[in-house]
Structure formats: C-alpha cells, structure tokens
C-alpha cells in the first residue's frame, strides 16, 4: 500500500539496530501522524470538559467529542450517534453488556458462545452466568479452524437469551459469518453480540446489513489511541437497558431519592470521558475512510497469501488457521522444537515484533492442543518486504536453536 508506512512515525525507528518490522497489529496498531496530531491539537487548542460548561472551550471539546461519535456511527453504518457508546475498550464494552443486558436473565436461561472467544467475550459471561444461575453453551470449532455453524444453530433454542461470538478470531484470523449468527439469534428471540475487535479494523462492517443487536470494538486496533472503545447497540434495546456505570453526565435529573437517565448514548457514559482519545479516534476513522476499507482488505489479503506461502515453505514450521474462506491478516505458527517465547525473542533481535503466548484465548489453545503460539499480524503499513524479513529471521532462529 503506497501511502501507508511513511505516515507512521514509529516505523522509521530501529529496534536492536535493525529496521522495525511491526507484525503485532492484532495486539495494537501503530498510529499515523494525523492521529497523534489530533490528540495534540485537542490539548493545545480545545482542552476542556464536555457537556459541562457554557463556554467556548467546553463547546469546542463537546463538538469534537460528539463528532467522533457521529464519525463512528457512519463508519459502521449505525443509525446515528445515539447507538454509539464510547467505553475504555472492547473489554469494557462487553462487560457493560454482561451487566446491563445481562440484568434481565433468569436462572436456567442460556448464553451461547463459541470455543474461539477471547477472554473478553468469555469471562464477563461466565460471571453473569454465576450471578444469575444461567447456563453457558459453546459452539465447536471445525478441524480447519472455522465455526461449526450447524452446531451453533442446533445449540440455540427457546432458553437462549444471548448469542455472543467473535467477528474474527485474534489467533486463527477466521472471519465468522456475523450475519448468519445474528439471524440464528433473531430466530430464537435472543440478542446477538459480535466481538468485532479484530473485524472492524480490517473489513468493512455494516451493522444494518449484519443485523446484529450489539457490536464491540477498540479504537487502538484501528489506528486510534488506547483507552477508547465502542459499544454499538440497537437504539430500542439500549433504551430498555439500565446503565452499568452511574454518576456524572449520565443523568438528566437527580434528587436525594433517585435519578433519571440522560438520553442515549450519554446514559451509558458516566464521568469525564477520554476526550483527547475521541479526537484521535476521529482522525483514525478519517484515515481509514480515506484509504478505503476495500483497499485495507485487499492489501491484507495479498499479504496473507504471500505470508502463508513464504512461511509455509519453511521446514518444521506449522501454520494454524483455516486454509479456505474469509480470514484477516493473522498468521499463527510454531517452529517444531522451539518455544514460542524463544521464537519471539529471537525475532526481536532482528527488529521484528510479533506476539507469542496464549493471546488471551486459553480455551482455544486447549482446543488446538497447544500451550502457545507465535502470531504475526498485518495492517496497512506492512509490505511483502516485512514478510521476507520474517521468513529470513525464522530461518536464522532455527539455525541458532539447531532445529
Ligand atoms: N486482543 C490480542 O493481542 P481490548 O484489550 O479490550 O482492546 O480488546 C480485547 C479483545 C477482545 N476481543 C478480541 C477478539 C481481541 O482480539 C481482543 C484483544 C489483543 O489478540 C490483546 S489481548
């Protein structure tokens, strides 16, 4: 992708005397200058609290903050900013749901998840099930790393109240059929929740087309700042839910006896939010829109194809994940005879940043029968040259370890 790498200042630095090759965007993406500058501009020109003062600065801050909501709504084709709640990250968005949506669950109700979930879309539901006496069921994964959709459909039934699934796996890269999952939920009157932390940054997402009830994602994985995340929810459902956090700004009136809630989305945004983060997030969305999500997707597809071939050719390297079907730019692999952490450390010596371990998805590791895995993940600033560097460094690591 022509534009990308030079827009990202960090990519011109060296690591251990070598060119930085950043292959860990699934953990967090690097930031273009426009995002860094948007945060700086907010602090240098408009810093004030939002929704709190009839003064010029507060009005400017409020406008920037609200515009970021509108840009997000447009980016995923939501009805409007009333359906966009800013949180700290995907994890907080899913916890919000497990409390606010989960409140209506009763003993014996069922929550349907999958065996490829990140802990963020598993532990909050486990806690909810404990509080309410609900039952959690899991859809299986096929041998080639896809969701067993027939199994998922057969496990959904009269008692199912929530179906929560990842839009794209952070380890396998598998893109799940969110529209079909939402339809299965709708057919049994359950709410659908899509953990789109690894989907929104990489593929064009249209919540109206998918038809899901809720969608969660993080700004930091899509070129934006850390500390800001999104929960998209259907307006009618958000109206029915009580807030998870309470306090300032989320109320319309308060007496000593009680309180009335503010309108959406502010009802779910208690306290001073991450305003500078929202300014940066708005700039990140603008950057992705200018690039075009179809180009982001196309670029990653090409890199993925190249990486699967290039890394797949190396002897004693096992690559995981589906051989066919939609998949984001994530390559999980292990080198026979080497611990994933050792591989990661050896690659670091070459200036190559990957992630190794269980990637916050221990049950999936268990399903795959492995303790950990190396993961190279791509984004718009990566090139085939980065993959060549990875392949050479893997070869070198094997030599050093004699495997
Ligand atoms: N996965 C990874 O290296 P937060 O940390 O709240 O922004 O995102 C949580 C999360 C939820 N769902 C999926 C599918 C994810 O991949 C992540 C974050 C990172 O894989 C950090 S553990």
Automatic annotation (TrEMBL):
Name under which the protein is recorded: Cysteine desulfurase
Gene3D superfamilies the UniProt entry points to: Aspartate Aminotransferase, domain 1, Type I PLP-dependent aspartate aminotransferase-like (Major domain)
Keyword annotations of the record: Pyridoxal phosphate, Transferase
CDD domains named in the record: SufS_like
Domain of life: Archaea
InterPro entries for this protein: Aminotrans_V_dom (IPR000192), Aminotrans_V_PyrdxlP_BS (IPR020578), Cys_dSase_SufS (IPR010970), PyrdxlP-dep_Trfase (IPR015424), PyrdxlP-dep_Trfase_major (IPR015421), PyrdxlP-dep_Trfase_small (IPR015422)
UniProt-listed Enzyme Commission number(s): 2.8.1.7
UniProt catalytic activity: (sulfur carrier)-H + L-cysteine = (sulfur carrier)-SH + L-alanine
GO MF terms, alphabetically ordered: cysteine desulfurase activity; pyridoxal phosphate binding
Record PANTHER family: CYSTEINE DESULFURASE, CYSTEINE DESULFURASE 1, CHLOROPLASTIC
Pfam families referenced in this protein's UniProt entry, alphabetically: Aminotran_5
Domain Aminotransferase class V: 21-390
Primary enzyme class: transferase
Described purpose of this protein according to its UniProt entry: Catalyzes the removal of elemental sulfur and selenium atoms from L-cysteine, L-cystine, L-selenocysteine, and L-selenocystine to produce L-alanine.
Similarity comment: family membership: Belongs to the class-V pyridoxal-phosphate-dependent aminotransferase family. Csd subfamily.
Cofactor(s) this protein cannot do without: pyridoxal 5'-phosphate
């Amino acid at each position: 992708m022509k534009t990308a790498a030079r827009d990202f200042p960090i990519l011109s630095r060296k690591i251990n005397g070598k060119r930085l090759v950043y292959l860990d965007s699934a953990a967090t993406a690097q930031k273009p200058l426009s995002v860094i500058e948007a945060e700086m501009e907010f602090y240098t020109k408009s810093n004030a609290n939002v929704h709190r003062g009839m003064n010029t600065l507060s009005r400017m801050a409020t406008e920037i903050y609200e515009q970021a909501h509108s840009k997000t709504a447009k980016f995923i084709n939501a009805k409007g900013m009333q359906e966009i709640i800013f949180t700290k990250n995907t994890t907080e968005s899913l916890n919000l749901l497990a409390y606010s949506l989960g409140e209506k669950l009763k003993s014996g109700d069922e929550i349907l998840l999958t065996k490829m979930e990140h802990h963020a879309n598993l532990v909050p539901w486990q806690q909810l099930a404990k509080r309410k006496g609900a039952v959690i069921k899991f859809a299986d994964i096929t041998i080639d790393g896809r969701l067993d959709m027939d199994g998922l459909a057969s496990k959904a039934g009269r008692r199912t109240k929530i179906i929560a699934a990842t839009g794209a796996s952070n380890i396998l890269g598998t893109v799940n059929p969110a529209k079909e999952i939402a339809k299965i939920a709708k057919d049994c009157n359950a709410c659908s929740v899509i953990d789109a932390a690894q989907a929104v940054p990489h593929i064009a997402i249209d919540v109206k087309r998918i038809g899901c009830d809720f969608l969660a994602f993080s700004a930091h994985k899509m070129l934006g700042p850390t500390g800001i995340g999104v929960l998209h929810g259907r307006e009618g459902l958000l109206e029915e839910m009580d807030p998870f956090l309470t306090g300032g700004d989320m109320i319309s009136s308060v007496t000593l006896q009680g309180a009335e809630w503010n309108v959406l989305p502010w009802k779910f945004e208690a306290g001073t939010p991450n305003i500078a983060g929202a300014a940066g997030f708005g700039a990140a969305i603008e950057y992705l829109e200018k690039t075009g999500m179809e180009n982001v997707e196309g670029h990653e597809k090409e890199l993925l194809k190249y990486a699967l071939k290039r890394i797949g050719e190396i002897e004693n390297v096992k690559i995981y994940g589906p051989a066919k079907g939609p998949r984001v730019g994530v390559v999980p692999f292990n080198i026979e005879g080497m611990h994933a952490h050792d591989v990661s450390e050896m690659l670091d010596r070459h200036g190559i940043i990957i992630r190794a371990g269980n990637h916050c998805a221990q049950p999936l590791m268990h399903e795959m029968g492995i303790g950990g895995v190396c993961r190279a993940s791509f984004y718009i600033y990566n090139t085939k040259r980065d993959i060549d560097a990875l392949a050479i460094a893997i070869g070198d690591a094997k030599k050093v370890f004699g495997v």
